[in-house]
Amino acid sequence: MTSPIPSAATPYEAAPDTGAAPPASTAPPRGGGTSSPGRIAWRRFRRDRAGVVSAYIVLLFFVAGIGAPLIAKVYGKDPYTTYGQNQPGLLNQFGFPIAPNGGISGDFWFGVEPQLGRDVLTLLLYGIRNSLLIATATTLLVTALGITVGITAGYHGGRVDNLVGRLVDILLAFPSTLFFIAMWPVLISILVRPDQNTPTWLTVVSLIAVMTAFGWAPIARLLRGEVLALREREFVEAAKVTGASAARIVFRELLPNLWTPILVQATLALPMYVTTEAALAFLGVGLSDPTPDWGVMIQRGAQVYQNDITYMLFPGLSMVIFVIAFNLLGDSVRDALDPKARR
Amino acid sequence: MSISRRNFVIAGSVAAAGGSLVLSACSSGGGGAQGGSAASASYSKVTVGTAKDSTGPAPEVTGARKGGTLHALGPDDFSHLDPQRIYFAWNSTVANLYVRCLTGYRIAPNGSMKLVGDLATDTGTMTDGGRTWTFTLKDGLKWEDGSELTVDDVRHGIERGFASFTTEGATYVQTWLTGSTDFRSLYKGPYGGKHLDSVVTDTAKKTITFQLKTARPDLNWALAMHSYGAVPVAHDSKEKYDKDPVSCGPYRIKQHSVDKSMTLVRNTHWDPTTDPIRTAYPDSVVFEFGPEALQATDRLIADSGTDQYAVMAYSGVPAERIQKVIGTPDLQKRTVNGLLTGLYYYAINCRRIKDVKVRQALNHAWPLEQIRSIYGGPSAGDYATTVLSPDIAGRVKFDVYGKLKNPRGDTAKARSLLKAAGKLGQKIVYTYPQGGNDAYDKTKVVIVNALKEAGFDPVVKPVESTSYYDQVGQIDNTFDVMWYGWSPDWPAAYTLIQPLFDGATIADNAPNVSQLNVGWVNTAIKKDAGIADTVKQEAAWAALDKEIMAKEAPIIPETYQRRYYLYGTKVGGAQFDPLFSAFLIYKL
Amino acid sequence: MLRFVARRTLSALLILLVISALTFALFYVAPRDPARAACGKLCTPQTLALVRHNLGIDDPLPVQYWHWLTALFVGRDYTGLGRCPAPCLGYSFTNHEPVLGLITDRFPTTLSLSLGSAVVFVLFGVGTGMVAAVRQGRALDKIASSASLVGSSLQIYIVGVVAMYYLSDQWRLLPRPSDAVGFTQDPAAWFKGLLLPWLVLALIFTANYTRMTRSQLVETLAEDYVRTARAKGLGRRTVFFRYAWRGAMGPIVTILGLDLGYLLGGAIITEETFGLHGIGALSIKAVRDNDLPLLLGVVLVAATAIVVANIVVDAVYAVIDPRVRLA
Fold it and tell me: Mean of the pLDDT values across residues C46-56?
């Protein structure tokens, strides 16, 4: 993912699947044996120091996200109270923290949010929690949808394949970022009764749905190619000859050979959706206050950075660290699963 | 950078950047603008000048030098140049340079304004209790090609306001002349070869008489709007005039490349002795479009090259820089600031919230201080307690709900009012434009907190900023409290109170979003508008202002917003324009 | 080849047609009224109806779309504004300028941003990738590889903002981003204004090229034909540049093409972060102003850039790499 605009529609456009990063599927290591391929990969992974360290970092983020309420309780603050508004002496008349470095103090370890005056640490923890939830759910859905469509198109071929191909082309060429900005508020207004609060879960679900709708195309295209190649292989032909059902061929013959590219794509996708969600928040699409969100914090930070760079640095740096760690992890996973791809 | 644009412009983007602006001619520094020290510019006082005040040349400005080129930086190009299509303030910033109307405002160094005759020798003669108005043109008025400017051209400017393509402009005079808001069905504009019966010119081409259907003692104020600027009959290119207007002011447009730049040079046929308003010191004015407020501020802070001769055309110092600009003495010296004309407020939907006690409770509960601190504290503006803004002639300050004493809001009082009305737990659907100014996403938090504390059940329904005004403008909308703003078209109470509270104006997309429709208010508006004596009229409006707020509470006044502008070291005579909330370019 | 291009062009046109129709339909899903903006402060229903008529949005949707589509090929006459010649994208709702003109006005910024950063990231990325490939497995390779991974993990709206704060505002090392001056007006000022965006974009983009170059070179260096060349006693340099390099170029051209296609279509976040005024900023403006013709215009530009990039990439790929056959 190198595009400066991690558009959900074109998640992998910069690392195109057209043979650029060939997910090896040449030697399907299928079944049996004393040492399963999974175990071999695991052993290989454990030897990769960078991979293990980044795995721990990623784990830390997930633990922090899941445990956010607990941490907040121990720490004694919550991300909703406007401390700066309620207690005098925290924010100056411009609405910025009085203490240096964004108002970091013994009470507020990561400082105070400008203007509303909420606690940055808990805000960040809850933000990470929400962002990871969205990104993980999107990744799972995108992968599932991509697998379904990709395998169907590849296996069926013919008209279905053609139709899917066109759809993928349109989705990939569609300026989705622009679409999000233009359509997001409309979507919400259609879904919610006008005199009801928009429930946060609905925002989250819509966001996941929209990102999924635009995100499945590349993975489907990749898997379709893989399936096309696999379909001609002897073991599939053999299964067909023996009269195996389509379902059996797909689940028993094809899928096991696709796990490597799927896993690789999924590990690439998760950090990408974290950043996509943040990028959309940067443009004002997605969650909004008072719901804490990583991307919204960065967006806010980008507005106030002249007066309070600290507020930009905490969410910004933590996101950079998370994405780097996850990408390193993804690299290691790929190496472990498929050593030929790199060395 | 454009983040500041999103943050600054929306009230702005809505206004400055064009967009779906409905409300204010002079919208806003949004929630962004903030300032530090006490405001230096005081509220301006408006008076009507005499014939002597209306004679040129305009008084010299101390500190200003003649000659040179003035550079003006603005994020977006002007949306219209055709005077009949100009309504919004930022367009008027440039229109001041080439458009002249029958009347205009002479602005003194202390910011006080005087209505004077611009093309006319004085501010007009009213007879028949305000139904008939006569203006006489000055001698020596010329267009940029040297041809004489006659009453035909003035009348043409009025009649073009009826044409099918000038929908953006003001509609007051058209309505008064025909007696109908659907004036286009009665007269189709000057292109069919017919003239308005109600505008009469004499054979000497010197005087023009307006015969109104109703008494309008304030016609001369309305005629100062650029929507009623003169247009030469001989050079009118209809729709295309918007791209290539003809000047009768001190400058003419020499070059214009859309969204990039516009160069104005001296109009040699402009005679300063006919002009009591404009001094026109620089030889040319160059607008540069593109630099966002933040970029412009940084360039002016750096103060190098031509930027020493530069001003911020209409976008103020954004929140990101205000602390620095106000905190640095050298920079603060180079600022002007002032309150934006008009009022930011929250309209209460009186069709849905019928109980006055509930509306009063909302007023008591509203957390003004918290809201303003999100906008940026005292430098972002002053708390509003009245409908009329401080620049309105005859405005009297009052504070029915004790908001100045207790700007954090009195939730206990609100609760007891609610209780008395038996409306504890009243659902309040609050809406604001989302996607433009992020400040409203923040203020919503403190508003909800305050409403909950006061015993309301707040529901927040933000509306996408691009369709915000469409949606709150619907009569049958489902919002109870709506963020809104309104700026007067001339500094008279009528232009605030009538559009906002006259029950007769209620319609889809009409500005009376409170939908207040109370007999005594409607009658009072009609009566006050017809009072011929200015002083008595002003007093009547001020009283009505207070009465509406106390008895009906149809809105929650929020702030009179303040904006700061920066200028280069070599710029002299900089002054805040109290009318259009920008620099007075013609005085620099 | 010709058949390939013709076939792909046809399907590209189909894609663009669908996308424009989709944009058109979706625009009106929202309860928005573009006429409102031109209706003045004291808007009456009569005026609103008049504005709708002036803008041509009082026709049924399919009719509007048909007008828009035909104008694209045969031009269109606008009452009052005159003729808009063939490829006519209509007039902007907000300032009544021809949409095509607005887009071509903004294009230099987008072009400068894209090509300028492309020069930096391709030179830098391919260079480090080559060094890394030659020094495979050594310290330099490891540094280059991990640096590229870090680079590709960065986000423009984080790095860009932080870079502006420290590099331009605090330490004053680089000028603040600006696109006020065009290349033709003052190349030096143009260069200075875009330097920071180029560098930040390059920082993020370079990684992909480093990785790609490295892995492709490593792969081709191990290929039989390269080994044969080396065995024949050809010099290291000759082998590297004449044989290995050629084989590695295909994928690099591919990602370059797609990256450029994306950037030329308007980099919304990049422009938003640095306050530049290219196609990306124009599209935000179109959305914000409910400016349907402008929105359709920028959507079309962005989609065309991506679609064309795809075709060009595939064609070029075939030229470079004789193993690829065009279907």
Answer: 85
Q: Give me the helix-helix angle, C99-134 and C292-320, nearest 10°.
A: 30
pLDDT digits (tens, 9 = 90+) for C89-141: 888 888 788 899 889 988 888 999 999 999 999 998 888 888 888 887 778 88
Structure tokens belonging to residue A67: 């445990």
Instruction: Please state the separation of Cα A7 from the chain's center in Å.
Output: 12
Select the residue from B20, B186, B226, B508 to test the C interface by mutation, using most C Cβ atoms within 10 A: B20
- State both tokens at B90: 């930022």
AA identity, residue C22: L
Closest CA to B261 of B237, B283, B285, B292: B285
Residue for token digits 């109470």?
B493
For residue A243, the distance in angstroms to the closest alpha carbon of chain C comes to: 33
- What single letter denotes the amino acid at residue B464? E
Residue of chain C whose Cα is closest to the Cα of A190: C30
Nearest-neighbour CA in chain A from C79: distance (Å): 30
Residue type, B387: V
Residue B577's region, left for phi above 0, alpha for psi from -120 to 50, else beta, is beta
Q: For residue C27, which residues of chain A lie inside 8 Å, CB to CB?
A: 182
Query: What's the length of chain A?
Result: 343
C79 Cβ contact list (under 8 Å, min separation 6): none
Asked if B446 is an interface residue toward chain A (Cβ–Cβ < 8 A), one would say: yes
- CB nearest C154 (choices: A313, A320, A328): A320
In angstroms, what separates the C-alpha of C290 from chain A's closest C-alpha? 9
Whole-Å CA distances, B523 to B181, B219, B527, B562:
19, 20, 6, 34
Mode of pairing for the β-strands spanning B113-117 and B103-107: antiparallel
Question: Measured between alpha carbons, how far is C9 from C11 in angstroms, rounded to an integer?
Answer: 5
The answer to whether the CB atoms of A94 and B376 lie below 8 A apart is yes
C82: β partners: C78
Contact A115 B442 (CB under 8 A): yes
CA A55/CA A38 separation, integer angstroms: 17
The DSSP symbol for C185 reads: T
Q: Are C200 and C156 in contact (CB under 8 A)?
A: yes
Q: How far is B497 from chain A (nearest CA, A)?
A: 29
Q: Check if the interface score ipTM surpasses 0.85.
A: no
Q: Where are the beta strands (DSSP E) in B49-191?
A: 69-74, 103-107, 113-117, 125-127, 132-136
Q: Which residues of B touch C288 (CB under 8 A)?
A: 13, 17, 19, 435-436, 465-466
Pairwise CA distance, residues C120 & C129, whole Å: 14
What are the phi and psi torsion angles at B107 (to 5°)? -105, 120
Which tens digits make up the pLDDT trace of A199-223?
Answer: 788 888 888 998 998 889 888 988 8
What is the three-class DSSP state of B480? coil
C6 CB-side CA count, 13 A: 3
Give every CB contact of residue A326 below 8 A, 6+ residues apart in sequence.
A54, A58, A267, A270, A271, A274
Low-confidence ranges of chain B (pLDDT < 70): 1-45, 320, 435-437, 573, 575-588
Cα–Cα distance measured from residue A265 to residue B531, given in angstroms and rounded to the nearest whole number = 77
* Chains in contact with B, where contact requires at least 3 CB pairs less than 8 Å apart: A, C
Q: Do B560 and B382 meet the contact criterion of CB atoms below 8 Å apart?
A: yes
Largest CA distance in chain C: 87
Read off the pLDDT band of C156 (50, 70, 90): confident
Nearest-by-Cβ selection for B18 from C101, C287, C289:
C289
Residues 6+ positions from C322 with CB-CB distance below 8 Å: none
Q: Where are the alpha helices (DSSP H) in chain C?
A: 2-27, 45-55, 61-74, 99-134, 139-152, 156-163, 187-221, 224-231, 236-238, 245-264, 268-274, 279-288, 292-320
Nearest Cβ partner for A4 among C19, C204, C302:
C204
Q: Among all residues of chain C, which has the CA nearest to that of B294?
A: C275
